[in-house]
Amino acid sequence: MLAVAATDPALGFLSTVSGVTIETIHAAIDLVAAEGNRPALVVPTGLGEALLLRAGFVRAADRLLALKPLTTQPRVAVDIIEVTADDAFLDVLMAGYEVDGPVAAFIRAEHRLPMMRRFLAVARGKPIAAAALTIHGDVAVLGGASTLPAHRGHGAQSQLLRHRLHVATDAGCTLAVATARPGSVSAANLARAGFHIQHRATWKRN
């Protein structure tokens, strides 16, 4: 199991217990009950529903995990550049996310990690969208991605997604992993790119 606890209420969505199996679900229930900030329990859909209901849990919105085995990926015929400067990348990423406060601070800190690879989609010489990638052995994890409001709906994120898959394949990765909010444009982009979308049930205890 993996337990994550965020102390700031604005980052409560990060507080989860995941990696739960039928063998560990009782321990997961006890762990959630012992935590004062009541992290959400994320389990495979259908796992231990009756047990969770008896323990006082209620179903919350699903979370998505997207998986794609990697083979040879076509190159993207658009102007996408990889940048090393945090500020150039973060200016576009944060303008696209349109968030502030602790959530913005968390996103900035996460995308300043040295292992983060940062990409910008450029139109007419100006960056319009940003997306990140980290590589862990032979697994590529797609990081944050956003498009400037004035440039949404024109395929920039689909292009950045395909480009990152190509970069990951060139780096020897055999699997790409991403998360997205159910029903979001990001989830639709991942499905169109051939990702297998897994719904994970989320349970919370009052």
From TrEMBL:
Pfam families with a match to the protein in the record: Acetyltransf_1
Residue ranges of coiled coil: none
Domain of life per record: Bacteria
Domain N-acetyltransferase: 76-206
Entry-linked PROSITE patterns: GNAT
Protein name: Acetyltransferase (GNAT) family protein
Source organism: Actinokineospora diospyrosa
